[in-house]
Amino acid sequence: MDTGYHLMELPTKVLIGEGVISKLGDFVEDSARGGKVVVASGSNVASKVRRAVEAALPREPVWVEVVAADIRNVDQVMEAAESASCIIGVGGGKSVDVGKLAAFKLHIPFYSVPTSASHDGISSPFASLKGLDRPYSIMAKPPLGILADIEVIASAPRRLLASGCGDLVSKLTAVKDWELAHRVTGEYYGSYSASLALMSANTVLDNSRTLGSFGRDSVRELVEGLISTGVAAGIAGSSRPCSGSEHLFSHYLDVLAPESGLHGEKCGIGTIMMAKLHRIDWRRVRSALKNVGAPVEASQIGIDDSMVVEALTKASTIRPDRYTILSKRRLSRKSAALLAKSTGVI
Ligand SMILES: [Zn+2]
């Protein structure tokens, strides 16, 4: 950013703790004010928390089932939310992304109620959707409020929580890429938001063994870390502190093998290799991911060697405006294979 100014948009309130879903009515009251409330949610999630959500709200909300994170689902939520006071996204990733973008387009408040902690979209200003002209997140607005019930999130499958750890660890190389871009291209760099994002990565790197137990305290730490990285993006005014070469690698795999692996899993694996390119301690990243039960080898998420090599050599092309270590190094197929083999990814 060379304009000399940027806008910081942040969530206004966060309610976190065990059983807080019962406080959802009070939490959204300022926005709801007797109007229609639309809840965007997946079918699994709805069956798990529907009763709790309905018991907490003063009036019955309109439920919209989110099947996929794509524009069609955004349109459906928007249709249901015409004349609504606010939208609540209840779920893991999809419902929050879809609800966030629908609310942004309708200029109404959005509340995020994560039921798992698999990536930082729960608090960030970005929405990650399929079927757009580009395979990375688009800028919307951060949620007005985030209500994170630790009791609900702790009961999510471990794989989702481990994936959240992968997304947190990825801030390590994202920040390195941002520093590099600042040096090479003169792009704006904010050390405050960078430090905030790094702090979240260190939560995993420093405490992976305890964190990997996914007891209530660990889950709370993970959720706070993910909320903080979303806030870091809000302070930076871009996804820079949260998304670098490791995310480009993950986005490229999304194109090659859309059904394989979760976002945080692919970012975690990418971070191991990008850390080596940045000449930082990639072994520490790898063992932290292992300790929390996240995959460290591409085969664990059904990605074969050739896809890894292709993603490494081509990832920088999907977002040419984002300068990262992959723009600097321009890996050949041979050097990409060497990198992936030497870090145990393939
Ligand atoms: Zn991410």
CA distance, first residue to last residue: 37 Å
What is the H/E string? EHEHEHEHEEEEHHHHHHHHHHH
Numbering strands along the chain, what is their spatial order in the largest sheet?
Answer: 1-8-5-4-2-3
Continuous helix count: 15
> Strand portion, in percent?
5-15%
Secondary-structure-based class equals alpha/beta
Bound molecules: zinc ion
Q: The biggest beta sheet, please?
A: 6 strands, parallel
By DSSP, the count of extended strands is 8
- Low-confidence spans: none
Helicity range: 40-55%
Shape call: globular
Mean pLDDT value: 94
Rg (C-alpha, Å): 19 Å
Short descriptors:
346 residues; alpha/beta; six-stranded parallel β-sheet; two-stranded antiparallel sheet; 8 strands; 53% helix; globular; binds zinc ion
Please give a structural write-up.
The protein is an alpha/beta fold and 346 residues long. The chain is 53% helix and 11% strand. The chain has a six-stranded parallel β-sheet, sandwiched between helices. Strands 6-7 form a two-stranded antiparallel ribbon. Helix 6 (158-169) runs parallel beside helix 9. The longest helix is centred in the middle third of the chain and has 21 residues, at 191-211. The chain binds zinc ion.
What topology does this entry show?
Layout: E1 13-17, H1 24-32, E2 36-41, H2 43-56, E3 62-65, H3 71-80, E4 84-91, H4 94-106, E5 110-114, E6 126-127, E7 138-139, E8 145-149, H5 150-154, H6 158-169, H7 171-185, H8 191-211, H9 216-236, H10 245-256, H11 263-277, H12 282-291, H13 305-314, H14 325-329, H15 333-342
Helix pairs in contact: 3-4, 6-8, 6-9, 6-11, 7-8, 8-9, 8-12, 10-11, 10-13, 11-12, 13-15
The structure holds zinc ion.
